[in-house]
């Protein structure tokens, strides 16, 4: 017998996207483990059901035709996927399943500023399971109360839902505990395992480990967690933060080492940009609006730009950055992932594997990046308004002779039928004039435009442009040509603007909230698969090696400027003007 609950709409999972009197909601742990019920409403329904995974990845329920068809028999018949073939008792799952979340590296900045606040936001929204426990694990000596005090300083409640904020914080902090240990000690992880079991209290346990630690100790932590602190019966998943290596070879070595202790479906490689609202909206914008999909090709699009800029430098934290540089830190992962989502063909379904398959096809179709199509820069000190801003090599954690780029621009091409000849331009940099991340789609000029004379010789002034602003002030706007009211024929460019803050009163969730929830639910759509990672590194590794072996000196640009002049020449080579400079 299965206990189900009718549920209203919720933002916690796509499964609960709408409400109807006949809707049935599941709280679905996708992976190798049971499907359990979860109460999102007050109306309780009891049915005997068979669970069926549909083509789009959803799980639906239908009444059983016979009373003696058990879930185990259905599993053996192959209705559910191979990785889900476990015997389970539907009746007991609601009360007996639990999720234990361990933040490895709990004393670090990422954990304090992003992971714990995201977990609290999920709890505040009612998106976490009924039974859950959060453990911080790090080398620092700390008590449970000290961890709670540290975490409490970074927790905030939703602007649009302030009720019971203090009470919710107290309830959340009561679920937070701490264990001190070394990252390479199986004994310390075995002690953690003992504590986890005490809090799991005999329930069916699932465990999530978030590795918020430097990449050089990933493998030790994974080995110890896998051998000494894995779930005995439920699923065990590990979230791995970038960077995933420095090049193809080191990335492959890291993947190979992880797979000694974990299966691919246990590894969740996180790129937090994929969890941003406007990035996730890319496929919705394209595939659910008829006006865009027919235009999404070389026939109508002249170029596509992916722009990332920060208005601050390394600020005393250049040691890590100097080892990787802006190409590895931003372009090879954040911007390339967005490009793959933008350019992919229509997937068979919204299932994670179908989407990731299409992204991999895009990456494998891309032309190898050449050194001639890359510009690198490094910011220098600059005085503005009486304030002196230090250069990159003025940072005490950076070598004085460092050639690590803090800015890069590149032109990439996808050699397939849809995008042949369309330049995809990337630009990323630190210490620039503004902080932003956006996608700019510049359409072709109108053939035989009757109003060309109104724009003069600069036809770019008449170019339609679709802008998707990822951050800050999330927005989607389309630049069109419009007649200025009056007796004359004067044209200007106007924006059809969807500004999220004006249209939606609800606060936009942080990317880490979405990704943590997906990891708990086993949804892999926004995480990076190993072959996807291999394809991404194969594009950038040759040019990264050329830059380092040939000791290419980056072009200097002043702190707070728009970047090196070379980026403009690169765009001009392909008859493109950077959209953010217009």
From TrEMBL:
Catalysis performed (reactions): D-glucose 6-phosphate + NADP(+) = 6-phospho-D-glucono-1,5-lactone + NADPH + H(+)
Keyword Transmembrane helix included in the entry's annotation: no
UniProt keyword terms in alphabetical order: Carbohydrate metabolism, Disulfide bond, Glucose metabolism, NADP, Oxidoreductase
Domain Glucose-6-phosphate dehydrogenase C-terminal: 284-578
Biological processes, Gene Ontology terms: glucose metabolic process; pentose-phosphate shunt, oxidative branch
Enzyme Commission no: 1.1.1.49
Domain Glucose-6-phosphate dehydrogenase NAD-binding residue range list: 103-281
InterPro entries for this protein: G6P_DH (IPR001282), G6P_DH_AS (IPR019796), G6P_DH_C (IPR022675), G6P_DH_NAD-bd (IPR022674), NAD(P)-bd_dom_sf (IPR036291)
Domain of life per record: Eukaryota
TM segment ranges: none
EC class: oxidoreductase
Similarity field: Belongs to the glucose-6-phosphate dehydrogenase family.
Protein name: Glucose-6-phosphate 1-dehydrogenase
Gene source species: Solanum tuberosum
Gene name as annotated: LOC102597484
